[in-house]
């Protein structure tokens, strides 16, 4: 289920809005909210726009849109499709209501009133047992579920202990390795062709001389 949601400005991690949690939820998620702050600090202009970060019994899903980071902490068993559909709903409404003001605000939680919309939307996504593909109240959501096969998944330990960033270096590295292999194969072919062009005439001459010598002495 959806546990809590935090919205910050991507450029400087300024909190813009967050769900109002009860004391029990606040205590249970205290460590994971600290981890969320770490994620916000690790976000760069090249960061993955959608990412899921596993941490114990919870997963932190975030979405970046228009210099705003939308992050939800959900149970690890909660479907990623629903998590990102939920974040999409928030991003669309937030952009419509406050998009023009995001870059100019200076005080934290300037858009605290957005909690009302977050709470109402979270209730729709709160329990996956209520998400019936044939249900009338969530029909429109089924058309908006994201294809999550390309969304990066990381582990919180990678961020805490290995210092991993949230950018696309892994994809870039894979691409570079693939391109390097192509260039190596092309280089081998070019070298082979060059050797053939260089030594083929000499080889032909030697072959002809051998044939002539063989013919003469036989």
Overview of this protein structure:
Pfam families: Longin (PF13774), Synaptobrevin (PF00957). This protein is of the alpha+beta class and 218 residues long. It folds into two domains: 166 residues, Longin domain (Beta-Lactamase, 2-Layer Sandwich), CATH 3.30.450.50; 51 residues. 50% of the residues lie in helices and 17% in strands. A six-stranded mixed beta sheet has the order 2-1-5-4-3-6, sandwiched between helices. Helix 3 runs antiparallel to helix 4. The longest helix is centred in the C-terminal third of the chain and has 49 residues. The chain is rod-shaped, with a radius of gyration of 29 Å.
Shape: rod-shaped
Strand order of the largest sheet: 2-1-5-4-3-6
Structural class: alpha+beta
Number of domains: 2
How many helices? Answer: 7
How much of the sequence lies in strands comes to 15-25%
Count of distinct strands: 6
**Which stretches are poorly predicted, pLDDT < 50 over at least 5 residues?**
132-137, 169-173
Residues in helices, as a percent range: 40-55%
Terminal CA distance = 93 Å
Task: Provide the residue-averaged pLDDT.
Answer: 78
Q: Enter the CATH topology name of the largest domain.
A: Beta-Lactamase
CATH superfamily of the largest domain: Longin domain
Look at the structure and give the CATH class of the largest domain.
Alpha Beta
Task: List the secondary-structure elements in sequence, H or E.
Answer: EEHHEEEHHHEHH
The biggest beta sheet reads: 6 strands, mixed
CATH architecture of the largest domain: 2-Layer Sandwich
